[in-house]
Amino acid sequence: MRFEIQFFGHENIRSNHPKTIEITKESHLTPSGDCIVGVNASASCADLPPLLKKKLQNPNSKVTFSIKVGDHEFNVEGKGHENLILTHVEDIVIRKSDFICPRTLAVKCDKSSDLIPRKMISLLQNPKTQGTFTIITD
To answer: SS in 3 state form for 17-45?
Structure first.
């Protein structure tokens, strides 16, 4: 299953968090939101299709995330978890840890926002830059 979410850049995108990556439907961002890579997202955890949520709540599910900005692409692999809540109405967070809250989309991910190439982050610091966050489940 494949699900795409569109998002936009913001001048305060830093993307230097060592444990998470986040996109949000919110339009504002302070510099302290250091894991956020996109704002004005077209979907949050609460907006995901029921079948995708079911797959994400399977601990045996392997999940791949693709973040595309212009000609650049950054891929992350993570896992589903039976305790995922997937109800947050604004945010999506993918995590290296196994911490779960309503914003958590996947756990035990192999990368975090600090590993995203700086060229991509530079592009995302322009509010007119559009990106795509793709969720792919097996």
So the answer is: CCCEEEEECCCCCCCCCCCEEEECCCCCH
Overall number of domains in the chain:
1
Q: Give the CATH number for residue 83.
A: 2.60.120.630
Per-residue pLDDT reduced to its tens digit, 110-136: 999 999 999 999 999 999 999 999 999
Among residues 57, 77, 95, 58, the alpha carbon closest in space to that of 134 is found at 77
| Strands annotated E in 83-122 | 91-95, 104-106
Q: Rounded to whole angstroms, how far apart are CA atoms 63 and 33?
A: 24
Domain that holds residue 45: 2-137
**41-80 pLDDT tens trace:** 999 999 999 999 999 999 999 999 999 999 999 999 999 9
Question: Smallest Cα–Cα separation from 35: which of 46, 22, 44?
Answer: 22
